[in-house]
Amino acid sequence: MSPAAKKALAKTGAGLFWILLWALLAHLVGQKLLLPSPLLVVKTLLSLASGADFWLTLLNSLARILSGMLAGTLLGVVLAVLTHGSAVCRTIIAPFMSLVKSTPVASFIILALIWLGRGVVPLFITALMVMPVVWANVSEGLRAQDEKLLEVARVFHLPRRRVFFSLTLPTVLPYFRSALCSALGLGWKAGVAAEVLTVPQRSVGRMIYESKLYLETPELFAWTVTVIAVSFLIERLLLRLVSGLWRKGDDEHA
């Protein structure tokens, strides 16, 4: 058996263990209001997914939160480039990034709800949570570049485009991928948390809030499973997209 197959088998076994433990606990509790069984949650999720409202709600939240992720990522990269090239910019921006990372998300959500419309708050919060992670990792990647190779490139007057794809991008990409691994899941969960507190129309957060409000615990679990599954898919798909674009650019500029 190959190492990849062993790893997949181990993950599957771990997943089955926790599902069986969940089923056992649900059986011992014996009250779906407190802890619904995995089977009941799956049935509830399938029932929800059979209606158009489920998908419209999910797409609305995805559009809102993915926009925030994109904005936070772009802003994080731009600020990393600025702070790498200017010590003054780094002195000004670094304390703000530390402040964002150390402040509870709920505090920002409440403040943003005062300043912004409830439909905009999840987008803003997502961008705010993603930005410092991307900034820190890309900044570290830029500092990790080989200065001797960069000096050689300057001496031989190599085009900036070639230097970027041959030296800068290969160095920074692992740091950028690491940032995405942390930031995408964090951004999605922060965005949903903002939706729970701001309850915008047709949002996953609103459905989670209403499920709790009306004590529909199976629906609460079903929406939570949806959030986890979407977080996993977003991370995998976007990381593959980034890797694919890099390989394509690398081939074109080799």
Explain the overall architecture.
- The chain is mostly helical.
- It has a single domain, classed as Orthogonal Bundle (MetI-like fold).
- Helices cover 85% and strands 0% of the residues.
- It has ten helices and no strands.
- The longest helix has 39 residues, at 160-198.
Fill in the keyword field for this structure:
254 residues; mainly alpha; globular
Assembly state of the chains shown: single chain
The helix tally amounts to 10
Strand/helix succession: HHHHHHHHHH
Number of strands: 0
Tell me the structural class. Answer: mainly alpha
Number of domains: 1
- State the shape: globular
Spatial extent as radius of gyration: 22 Å
What is CATH's topology name? Answer: MetI-like fold
CATH homology-level superfamily: MetI-like
Low-confidence stretches: none
State mean pLDDT (0 to 100 scale).
Answer: 82
Tell me the strand percentage band: under 5%
Gap from first CA to last CA: 36 Å
Biggest sheet record = none
CATH architectural designation: Orthogonal Bundle
CATH class annotation: Mainly Alpha
Q: Into which percent range does the helicity of residues fall?
A: over 70%
